TrEMBL record:
It comes from Cyprinus carpio. This is Protein unc-119 homolog A. GO terms for biological process: endocytosis; lipoprotein transport; mitotic cytokinesis; negative regulation of caveolin-mediated endocytosis; negative regulation of clathrin-dependent endocytosis; nervous system development; visual perception. Its main location: cytoplasm. It is found in: Cytoplasm, Cytoskeleton, Microtubule organizing center, Centrosome; Cytoplasm, Cytoskeleton, Spindle pole. Residues 1-52 are annotated as: Disordered. Signal peptide: none annotated.
């Protein structure tokens, strides 16, 4: 499965090119240390229905989690659990080496179809990823990596680390099962240092609906030393994105990042 990525803006604007994987919403690592604010809005509509019948969805404002009072957990402990809760992943102290759930756990058929990042100060669209339409072409699927759509590699210029406010718009569809308490926890690390942890509650999603939401991240200034290290060591900045329905992990996506402006 392949995805398209379109970068816009001139050579002085922060930019990205996606190397592999799929639409991985919410993953725009800018390395704050836990003091940024997030704003979240979402709208949903019934798929293939009258566009005038769009229905607003109840959503809590996203927050930057501080993990205060959350017990420390390890990847090995969580892999041994029958189910994984939000509190479990909030206790992780480093990036996971493995996926904590399988693609088959996504029984709700949540499918991310579009992801866009823009600079809120200038309105510049930094990049946009769109999932291509499904095809009915035959072929041997035995050699297809089941995790191919769960990992994305991003390439940014160093200027991205100096952005103050970034909007991340995601479009996703859901299957014929209603979704209660849809929640995303996104954790970003540089090496084994937690840079930031975001927690968004999407709320209820009606069956067979297409939904669009935008997360607005406000980033504090980074230290020059930290930015230098992140630029000099591409792909050592990584993120885990965990998705829960009724406090049970159903999806896990991963991404890594380069800020050197090249492959």
């Amino acid at each position: 499965m392949s995805y398209s990525c379109t970068s816009t803006g001139n050579s002085q604007d922060p930019s990205c090119s996606k190397k592999s994987g799929g639409v991985n919403p919410g993953s725009c690592s800018s390395g704050d240390t836990g003091n940024s604010n997030n704003h979240h809005s979402i709208r949903g509509s019934k798929a293939n229905s009258n566009p005038d019948l769009s229905e607003a969805m109840r959503v809590k404002k996203g927050c930057n989690t501080t993990d205060v009072g959350v017990p420390v957990t390890t990847e090995e402990e969580l892999l041994a659990n029958e189910t994984i809760s939000p509190e479990d992943v909030l206790g992780l102290q480093k990036i996971t080496e493995n996926y904590l759930c399988s693609p088959e756990d996504n029984v709700y058929n949540i499918d991310f179809t579009r992801f866009k990042i823009r600079d809120m100060e200038t309105g510049t669209v930094l990049f946009e990823i769109t999932k291509p339409p499904a095809t009915d072409k035959g072929g041997d699927k035995r050699d297809v990596d089941p995790n191919a759509g769960r990992f994305v590699r991003y390439q940014f210029t160093p200027a991205f680390l100096r952005l103050r406010q970034v909007g991340a718009t995601v479009e996703f569809t859901v299957g014929d099962i209603p979704i209660n308490n849809f929640r995303m926890i996104e954790r970003h690390y540089f090496r084994e240092q937690l840079l930031k942890s975001f927690d968004f509650e999407f709320g209820f999603c009606i069956p067979s609906s297409k939904n669009t939401c935008e997360h607005i991240y406000e980033f504090p200034p980074l230290s020059e030393d930290l930015m230098r290290e992140m630029i000099l060591h591409p792909y050592e900045t990584q993120s885990d994105s965990f998705y829960f329905v009724d406090n049970k992990l159903v999806m896990h996506n991963k991404a890594d990042y380069s800020y050197s402006g090249g492959p």
